[in-house]
Design brief:
Elements (H helix, E strand, L loop, with lengths): L1 H18 L5 H24 L7 H35 L1
Length: about 90
């Protein structure tokens, strides 16, 4: 599980890198697909094993992932809203 969490954090790093570059929705979609796959796996683990106990390192990684999500949301969401509003105005 530890390696899987580290992989998810790496995906979040990729999103963070993209947020500082030109906004390319296809890149965001590809990374989101990877992230969604990880989240579905975590949901499956959660459903199948109610007794799983996270190690201290795993808890730290999860906390870092949550922090990174908060940071990325504040960076990416305004761009996504701008693109969405532009798309709606073009219709």
């Amino acid at each position: 599980m530890n390696e899987k969490l580290k992989n998810t954090y790496a995906i979040m790093d990729s999103l963070e890198d993209l947020s500082s570059k030109k906004f390319i929705s296809e890149d965001i979609k590809n990374i989101n697909k990877l992230l969604n796959g990880d989240l579905l796996q975590y949901a499956s683990i959660n459903k199948s094993s109610n007794s799983y106990v996270f190690s201290d390192e795993e808890k730290k990684i999860i906390s870092n992932i949550i922090s990174k999500i908060d940071i990325l949301e504040s960076k990416i969401l305004p761009k996504a809203n701008l693109i969405s509003s532009f798309s709606e105005s073009v219709r």
